[in-house]
Amino acid sequence: xxxxxxxxxxxxxxxxxxxxxxxxxxxxxxxxxxxxxxxxxxxxxxxxxxxxxxxxxxxxxxxxxxxxxxxxxxxxxxxxxxxxxxxxxxxxxxxxxxxxxxxxxxxxxxxxxxxxxxxxxxxxxxxxxxxxxxxxxxxxxxxxxxxxxxxxxxxxxxxxxxxxxxxxxxxxxxxxxxxxxxxxxxxxxxxxxxxxxxx
Length: 199
Fold this sequence. Notes:
It is a single chain. It is built from seven helices and seven strands; from the N terminus they run H-E-E-H-H-E-E-E-E-E-H-H-H-H. The chain is of the alpha+beta class. Strands 2-1-7-6-5 form a five-stranded antiparallel β-sheet, sandwiched between helices. Strands 3-4 form a two-stranded antiparallel ribbon. A hairpin with a 2-residue loop joins strand 3 (59-60) and strand 4 (63-64).
């Protein structure tokens, strides 16, 4: 993302740009070039307006119009994945420090195509970051299940081992069948009685 922003700044002859990411009810500053005149808290305070600005941007042939905000030109960034967690598909914003719309500065079709190629590159990078976060979150969600499954397997193995090693000694002592001993003493009781028998 940083390299894309730097290229865009060089291309448009400006020194400041940023990418911000919508994250449920929050907005996070993902990357920036240059010293921005606002903080992430400022973005958070403006989140409803920024979200509305992003959703209202005119979109033609996969290209969204740039819109002005606080001396920056903003363009919404979209996810190309159908599994993204936003209803509109908007995952963030790209902002360039310019007083006028960059498409007005560059009126050549090739230059406009290059500009939107850079926007799409930033879009793809941000979407890849989101996908990576989703994968990590899924893996973290599986860890407790793995630990529980692992613990359950160990418990089953331990119970089988207890029955195999200790219950026969109880059965010998009380002269009863194995199933009666397990029902009567339970597994914990079996261990206690067996240790008493053995030691």
